[in-house]
Design brief:
Helix content: 25-40%
Order of helices and strands: HEEEEHEEHEEEEHH
Number of strands: 10
Strand content: 15-25%
Low-confidence stretches: 142-151
Mean pLDDT: 86
Shape: globular
Number of domains: 1
Strand order of the largest sheet: 4-1-8-9
Length: 151
């Protein structure tokens, strides 16, 4: 759902940028794209924590996203949540990778791990599979049964 929303945003912004480029005969438009994504989860509740790390490939792309989604009324799951865009303490794809590459996530699928997109995603239909950042750790509660503890 988050990737679809980001892709749709990039498609719309890139379409606008190309139209503006054609109208002005100026060929320096910056496309919107992102190359890192992580949606932290509460694995016990199987819900996200309400924030995400998204690295846009340019400050222009980040500002476009900010203008589109800051204070956006996010009506999902019968609650009204307001989207607030804030800069993260850690900036840039390489620094985000460095932050999460040694992290272990207690999840049962790679779907919850941070990902890097190379080339960056810009909403086009062709893309390569993402590279995973970090690794899954097997929780003691999922691998040990009560009977094996008693032995």
């Amino acid at each position: 759902m988050l990737i679809e929303m980001l892709d749709h945003h990039c498609i719309e912004q890139n379409k606008k940028a190309k139209e503006e480029e054609e109208e002005s005969d100026h060929q320096s438009s910056i496309l919107s794209a992102y190359d890192f994504l992580y949606l932290p989860m509460d694995f016990k509740k199987r819900l996200n924590l309400g924030y995400a790390f998204v690295n846009f490939t340019s400050s222009v792309a980040a500002m476009r996203f900010y203008r589109s989604f800051d204070n956006y009324n996010w009506e999902v799951f019968q609650t009204s949540k307001i989207c607030k865009i804030c800069p993260a303490r850690i900036q840039g794809k390489d620094r985000l990778i460095g932050r999460f590459k040694h992290s272990c996530f207690e999840c049962d699928t790679d779907d919850f791990l941070p990902v890097v997109f190379s080339p960056p995603r810009n909403g086009s239909t062709s893309f390569t599979p993402p590279s995973l950042v970090g690794r899954r750790s097997i929780s003691l509660t999922t691998t040990t049964t009560r009977s094996s503890i008693d032995q």
